[in-house]
């Protein structure tokens, strides 16, 4: 990692400064670092070899760093800068941070600048399959797998490791959480050779691997008659599997498990609890310092559409809160940001503020499954910021998701795991949005979501605007006009996408299976339990305690009362929590139906505005990337017009209320 950090500094400084940069390996021997140069090393070495105060060189902690201006060794000589890492990862992240400061025009700090990550675990989940396909992938095929195994040419993977290190991401699960037979075999001798090569390619960049495993592995791979976690033979099988895996990859983070969810096998098949299922695997991993990342995405996906009592939004809370305190210390629940499924607008999941004796991770979706599939520009950090800043009131005011979950500040105690100093089960997980397309993410502007995930997992207090401006500067250069236009488009994009798809928290009006394009009732009568409850008079799901499903009771006060009360409910979530008549006037003075009409027309016009603003940059952005973004924006406009026409026509048919502005319906 130190060699990588030094190489990145040399290459980065040479490109940024436009002149060659020499490197040396004896920087620690000088009193204050080379004149005008950069010194890089860990705090322990810095204290022994550099001049300065103890405060300057005090360790910033695991993965942290301090950037310190240093005096020249000779009188009148230019000063330099020292990058002091709490460990080797800290050195690597500090090197990239210095390059970021220079590239964005921030420059060298005048006084010591300290940083350390808030989230111990900053991880990406790839939904890649061994055949090279990517579930919910919108940027080509897998960079990790092809032809049923780990790809033989790992050059792209090494470049990816470099990319991840630049934003502080420290873990990666390369295979799909929906683990089929081929994915399950990655923990066998046949699959582990490739996994070991993959781990070796990423290790110099501080990225540890985890593996998604199939709960029924004892049956699929071991030939056992059962995967019941209470059977001793099942525990023995997992222990043997763990020994085999850690012999091949000693620093493996652990296993990701999706169990008893959407058809995946799990403990429910045997009448066992989620905790019993997780703990048998956790016990097998514990001797190696491994963790189990247990996805909390569990709900009844066989619901009858006539059942108005069962509420999918309530499922995770009802499943896991009764098990609080029953999970092993090296298990963490991986909880989606909202109670449903990565919709463009949901309230934060109440499970994030519950189960105080259980370790938790916040899971977000970087890949744009329900937010435009990387055809539409939809900058997601503003959504994630809303969740991170959400005050759950679990321990009174100030109990934010960032503090309770991402930083590991709940009652479950420190975030570390056995093994000392390595990331533990607290932090933030993002479902990755990359593929083998040249630009990584298909839409060039979708790169901002991957960058934003890394920056927010590192420091949740960063603003979405600061992240957008950073990314624009690092990606498109120092032209202020380009930065301003890009920042404006990015910051407006989520609200624009929401306005022409599913305003007021309605959600789910997508084409089944593909989740691409509008289909208002595509899921309405399906088995998945995601309903609009639309009839000729009203639409929306009543989730109040007084009249509805009672979902609001899962929140702490004051949110319980706020969401319960239609007058106090945030307007952007009105139809998520309440049922509203089409003819009812909203606080803005227009009917619900008219609001929908207006919102969809305004969204389409906003996309036209994006196109016009981007066109103004045609002489300021390189032609290849300018053309690529322009193509996506034109495709977005076409899709937005379809959404407008389909949804507005649906509301008109349901309500019989005409558009007050006389705009045509299609």
Report the structural category: alpha/beta
Strand order of the largest sheet: 9-8-5-15-14-13-12-11-10
CATH superfamily label of the largest domain? Glycosidases
Rg from alpha-carbon coordinates:
26 Å
Q: Topology of this protein?
A:
Blueprint: H1 2-17, E1 38-42, H2 43-49, H3 54-57, E2 65-70, E3 80-85, H4 88-103, E4 113-115, E5 121-128, E6 145-146, E7 149-150, H5 155-166, E8 171-175, H6 181-184, H7 189-202, E9 208-209, E10 211-213, H8 217-220, H9 232-248, E11 254-257, H10 274-285, E12 291-295, H11 315-320, E13 331-336, E14 359-365, H12 381-388, H13 401-406, E15 427-431, H14 447-458, H15 464-476, H16 480-500, E16 538-539, H17 559-564, H18 574-577, E17 580-581, H19 592-615, H20 623-655
Parallel strand pairs: 1-3, 5-8, 5-15, 8-9, 10-11, 11-12, 12-13, 13-14, 14-15
Antiparallel strand pairs: 2-3, 2-4, 6-7, 16-17
């Amino acid at each position: 990692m130190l060699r990588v950090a030094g190489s990145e500094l040399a290459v980065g400084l040479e490109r940024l400064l436009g002149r060659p940069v020499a490197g040396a390996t004896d920087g620690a021997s000088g009193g204050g670092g080379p004149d005008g140069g950069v010194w890089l090393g860990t705090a322990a070495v810095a204290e022994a070899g550099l001049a300065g105060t103890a405060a300057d060189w005090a360790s910033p902690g695991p993965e942290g760093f301090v950037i310190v201006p240093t005096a020249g060794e000779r009188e009148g000589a230019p000063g330099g800068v020292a990058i002091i890492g709490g460990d080797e990862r800290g050195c690597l992240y500090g090197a990239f941070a210095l390059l970021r400061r220079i590239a964005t025009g921030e420059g060298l700090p005048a006084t010591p600048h300290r940083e350390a990550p808030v989230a111990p675990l900053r991880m990406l989940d790839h939904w890649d399959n061994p055949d090279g396909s990517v579930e919910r992938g919108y940027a080509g095929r897998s960079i990790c797998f092809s032809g049923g195994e780990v790809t033989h040419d790992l050059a792209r993977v090494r470049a990816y490791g470099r990319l991840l290190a630049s934003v502080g991401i420290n873990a990666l699960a390369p295979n799909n959480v929906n683990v089929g037979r081929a994915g399950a075999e990655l923990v066998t001798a046949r699959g582990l050779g490739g996994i070991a090569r993959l781990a070796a390619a990423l290790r110099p960049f501080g990225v540890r691997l985890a593996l998604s495993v199939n709960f029924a592995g004892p049956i699929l791979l071991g030939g056992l008659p059962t995967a019941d976690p209470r059977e001793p033979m099942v525990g023995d099988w997992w222990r043997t599997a763990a020994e085999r895996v850690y012999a091949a990859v000693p620093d493996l983070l652990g296993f990701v498990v999706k169990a008893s969810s959407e058809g995946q096998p799990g403990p429910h098949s045997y009448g066992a609890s989620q905790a019993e299922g997780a703990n048998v695997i956790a016990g097998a991993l514990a001797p190696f310092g491994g963790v189990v990342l247990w996805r909390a995405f569990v709900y009844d996906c066989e619901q009858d559409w006539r059942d108005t009592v069962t509420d999918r939004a309530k499922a995770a809370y009802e499943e896991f809160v009764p098990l609080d305190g029953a999970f092993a210390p090296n298990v963490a629940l991986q909880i989606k940001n909202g109670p449903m499924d990565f919709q463009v607008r949901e309230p934060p999941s109440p499970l994030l503020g519950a189960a105080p004796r259980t370790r938790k991770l916040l899971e977000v979706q970087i890949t744009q499954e329900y937010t435009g599939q990387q055809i539409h520009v939809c900058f997601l950090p503003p959504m994630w910021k809303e969740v991170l800043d959400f005050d759950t009131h679990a321990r009174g005011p100030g109990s934010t998701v960032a503090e309770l979950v991402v930083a590991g500040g709940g009652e479950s105690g420190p975030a570390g795991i056995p093994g000392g100093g390595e990331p533990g089960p607290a932090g933030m997980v993002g479902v990755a949005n990359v593929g083998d397309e040249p630009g990584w993410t298909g839409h060039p502007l979708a790169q901002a979501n991957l960058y934003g995930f890394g920056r927010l997992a590192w420091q949740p207090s960063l603003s979405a605007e600061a992240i957008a401006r950073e990314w624009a500067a690092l990606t498109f250069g120092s032209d202020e006009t380009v930065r301003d236009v890009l920042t404006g488009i990015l910051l407006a994009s989520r609200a624009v996408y929401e306005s022409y798809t599913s305003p007021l928290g309605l959600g789910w009006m997508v084409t089944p299976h593909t989740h691409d394009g509008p289909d208002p009732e595509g899921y309405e009568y399906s088995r998945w339990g995601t309903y609009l409850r639309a009839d000729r008079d009203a639409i929306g799901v009543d989730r109040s305690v007084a009249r509805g499903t009672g979902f609001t009771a899962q929140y702490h006060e004051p949110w319980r009362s706020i969401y319960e009360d239609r007058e106090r409910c945030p307007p952007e979530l009105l139809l998520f929590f309440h049922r509203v008549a089409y003819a009812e006037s909203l606080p803005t003075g227009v009917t619900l139906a008219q609001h929908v009409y207006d919102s969809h027309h305004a969204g389409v016009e906003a996309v036209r505005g994006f196109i016009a603003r981007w066109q103004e940059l045609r002489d300021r952005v390189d032609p290849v990337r300018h053309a690529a973004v322009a193509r996506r924006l034109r495709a977005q406009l076409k899709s937005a017009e379809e959404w407008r026409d389909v949804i507005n026509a649906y509301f008109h048919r349901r309500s019989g209320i005409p558009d007050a502005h006389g705009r045509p319906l299609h």
